[in-house]
Amino acid sequence: MWRAGFKWMFLIIGTTIGAGYASGRELWQFFGHESGLAILLFSIFFTISCIVIMLISRRRKSTHYLPVLREIVGERLAKFYDVIIFFYLYTTTAIMIAGSGATGQAFNFSKWWGIAVIILALFFLFIKGIDGLLSINQIILPLLIGGLLFILLLFTMDQELHLFSHIHEQRNWTAAFPFTALNLLSIIAVLGAIGDKIKTKQEIIIACVGSGVILGVISYIYNNSLIQIADEILLYEIPLFAILKDYPFEILIFMSIMLWFAIFTTSATGLLGIVSRIQDKMNKPFIWIVMITLITMIPFTLISFSTLINYLYPAYGILNLYVLTRLLLLPFSKDVYR
To answer: Which of 19, 93, 247, 274 could form a disulfide with 263 if both were Cys (CB 3.0 to 4.6 A apart)?
Structure first.
């Protein structure tokens, strides 16, 4: 039970902590000043939503997201959100690949080296199918979470920051809604693909509460750190590098590797959602669909990483507010607990 719960917890966190989140760009886009309450609400909304999605996925024994989506939004709107989710997964996976290029550029490498490395890594990962993704998540995610928390707490201590000094200033609380809604599309897609592998309700609770708490804590500390360097963020494609600029080169290298792994895990989970959906329509080998999908994404990497996040993420967040509303209301329905 515990082992399975942690396995799904790392899958959820790996889906959420991608290039946009780990780099700080996504958090700054939605939160910033006066956002403590917003982050607490995000943690609560996210936990409830994940529990509902996993319960539906388990009951339906789904292998792709469409059966889960139909139960959440209904038959009519499922067709609309099916297109939205597919386009979201496609564009955000392309954003992750562009993020790999941006990470390489931070060390004066051509972005095409970063793009080529991640495409090849994704291809070889999926030779083993979904088992390869689950195995690598359990290795990478503890390192990523530990590394990110370490550098953020180190920065907090070095700057003598007080984590709760602005607790009375919470005017940006509404940001919790679009930020949670944005992250739910990939969660529906990924958890919808593993419904036939979820065994018990206990592992669902462990996975969802654990991921909600961890993401809430990291988001709060990260956002608090970004507030201190608000004037410098515009100068950096990746805000995390503004935090790291005064630290030894070894720390920069370590966090850059961790950032790349965050990009990699989210690319992999996004690709899983895309490929599982396409495979339901086409009777083609899994790895063949992976290869074709990755090739078609290359042109999107010509758009800058920060531009993609600045325009696409807020739009997706607003479009999916209805999905969030449905997920928060479904716990009041007895059917979801069957």
So the answer is: 19
φ, ψ of residue 76 in degrees (nearest 5): -65, -55
Q: Between 176-191 and 2-16, two packed helices, what is the crossing angle to 10 degrees?
A: 120
A 10 A CB-CB count for 3 gives 9
Tokens of residue 170, six digits: 């919470």
User: What would the two tokens of residue 14 be?
Assistant: 């790996």
Helix or strand holding residue 158 (H, E): helix 130-158
- Please give the Cα distance from 46 to 208 (Å, whole number): 8
* C-alpha–C-alpha distance, residues 167 and 189, integer Å: 35
The Cα 259–Cα 278 span in angstroms is 29
Residue 4 host element (H or E): helix 2-16
Please identify every stretch of the chain with a pLDDT value under 70, giving residue numbers as ranges: 18-20, 103-107, 128-134, 160-169, 237, 303-309, 333-338
Is there a domain that residue 337 lies in?
Answer: no
Using DSSP's 3-state secondary structure scheme, residue 106 falls into coil
Number of structural domains in the chain: 1
Angle, CA of 305, 29 and 111, to the nearest 5°? 10
Find the domain containing 148 and state its range.
Answer: 2-165+173-330
Rounded Cα gap, residues 165 and 56, in angstroms: 41
Specify if 335 maps to a domain: no
pLDDT digits (tens, 9 = 90+) for 177-192: 988 988 888 888 888 8
CATH number at residue 287: 1.10.4160.10
| Dihedral sign computed on CA atoms, order 260, 227, 222, 84 | negative
